[in-house]
Predict the 3D structure of the following.
Amino acid sequence: MEILSSRVILRPTDHERTLAFYRDSLGLAIAREYPGGTVFFAGQNLIEVAGHGRADDAPSGFAGAIWLQVRDCDDTAAELALRGVPIDRAPQREPWGLIEMWVLDPDGVPLVFVEIPANHPIRRDIRGD
């Protein structure tokens, strides 16, 4: 199997509220719009906020999280605070070495903002000389 691209598709309970959160509160750039949906750039991924396809009896929760890497979690927290976005969990260093901050979208979908410290194995070339 060959995967050519990917994206996270959200089918929110209130399309306009969720669209405003990702567009205005988070300030994500729009990749494209189509009748009933908007696709946002999110680093190497895309987040689509669809205004269609949600069944009336669909589960209300989201079992995963959206992982968004940022340069500096403290700066991101300050920027989000200025935009009125509540921080669910302030930036803190995790046992695995990453600095993480949590925010919830209007439907309770967790967004994990991640800062990768310079000395973390993800950023180091472990191949040696």
Summary: The CA atoms of residues 18 and 86 lie 15 Å apart. The chain is about 15% helix and 30% strand.
